[in-house]
Amino acid sequence: MARARRAHSVLPKKEDSTRLEDFWDEPAPTARLPLSEIEALQGAWTAVSGRRQATFLISGNLFTVHFADGEIYMGSFTVGVNGRHRTMDVHVEEGPHRHKGQRALCIYELDQDMLRWCTASPGQADRPGAFAEADPMHLCLVFRRHRPMTQA
To answer: Which of 87-91, 136-140, 148-152 has the highest mean pLDDT?
Structure first.
């Protein structure tokens, strides 16, 4: 005669104070910055230092960088945080053929109307670790927000 096996429940007993929710981990929070960060980046920026002269236009999550030598890059971006730096992942949708369709990993610092921005070349796998203007592998620029002149 076969003996019936007792089933053991993995659920806590009613008298136990634990809850089912205690048995799973919450997903880790994503390292995204609030919308206000993207809003703070909006506008026209002009390079005031760095090895290339450029204007940087940001509208929503779209950008255009126009370098003084004539190169123009256009595309979209996302922002986040990676350790101590704010990050920007730029997707080059239009630009020089050698960079079109590639992603550029950037870091930035925003202080009201000043933007420090450092980018790896599109397609490079490593994000800059610091704002090193002398580093030939990265382009580091300081931009000042362009404010339209008001009429008196």
So the answer is: 87-91
Q: What 3-state class would DSSP assign to 81? A: strand
Contact 142, 48 (CB under 8 A): yes
Of the CATH numbers 2.30.30, 1.10.3470, 2.40.128, 2.40.30, which one belongs to the domain with range 36-144? 2.40.128
Nearest to 58 by CA among 70, 71, 72, 75: 75
CA-to-CA separations, 143 to 28, 53, 79, 112, in angstroms, rounded: 34, 10, 17, 11
> From the centroid of its chain, how far is CA 98?
22
Alpha-carbon distance of 66 to 46, in angstroms, equals: 10
What gap in Å lies between CA 75 and CA 64, rounded to an integer?
Answer: 7
The domain spans of the chain are: 36-144
Average pLDDT of the residues in 96-120: 96
1 has pLDDT over 70: no
**Between 137 and 145, where is the model more confident?**
145
Query: pTM higher than 0.90 for the full model?
Result: no
β-strand partners of 115: 110, 143
